[in-house]
Amino acid sequence: MGLASRPRRAAVPPRIFEMFPVLGQMLRRRGGDLSGGQQQQLAIARALIADPALLLLDEPTEGIQPSIVQEIAEVLQRIKQEGRRSILFVEQYLDFARAICDRFYVMEKGVMALEGDRHSFRIDEVSAYLSV
After folding, report:
1. Number of domains in the chain
2. Do residues 74 and 113 share a domain?
3. Is a pLDDT exceeding 90 seen at residue 58?
4. To 5 degrees, how large is the angle CA 65–CA 46–CA 56?
5. Is 116 exposed, middle or buried (0-12, 13-18, 19+ CB in 10 A)?
6. Which domain holds residue 71?
7. Is 127 within a domain?
8. Do 34 and 61 share a domain, yes or no?
9. Is the model's pTM score more than 0.85?
10. Pair (87, 106) in one structural domain
């Protein structure tokens, strides 16, 4: 296979490495060799490269150490402040969700059980719907 027939690798926008500096340090590593928190950062970064209007996240803090959770929260706050995209996430870590959300929705057995804006988000009310 000659050089002309190799697929071109797209450059990662510098803003991605500004948001997730650790990924710049890990460029030569395979995704599977990264820690769980680094893999989550990589997953969010990969989604952001496509510049979506809506960012969907399913439990972005699950199994992640607190320092990485804080880094992810800071990135999501930055994205939110930019005002260019919406973020929809499913999350059980209530303090994290409350810190980032503008609105919240709690479902129970497929039915909307509770909803409101960030100012009406009460941890005791929301946590009453969480169970294992």
Report:
1. 2
2. no
3. yes
4. 75
5. middle
6. 9-91
7. yes
8. yes
9. no
10. no
The pairing of strands 103-108 and 111-117 is antiparallel
**In which band, very low, low, confident or very high, does the pLDDT at 127 lie, cut at 50, 70 and 90?**
confident
Q: Chain-centre distance of CA 99, in angstroms? A: 13
Q: Residue 28 sits in a domain of what CATH number?
A: 3.40.50.300
How does residue 5 score in pLDDT terms, banded at 50, 70 and 90? low
Closest CA to 56 of 77, 34, 87, 31: 87
Half-sphere exposure of 39 (CA within 13 A, CB side): 10
- Give the residue with greater pLDDT, 46 vs 30: 46
Task: Output the six-digit token pair for 125.
Answer: 């009310």
Residue that wins the pLDDT comparison between 76 and 24: 76
Are 26 and 86 part of one and the same domain?
yes
Higher pLDDT, 16 or 7: 16
In the structure encoding, which two tokens stand for residue 39, read together?
A: 């893999």
List, in sequence order, the alpha helices (H) in the chain.
14-19, 21-25, 36-49, 66-82, 94-100, 123-127
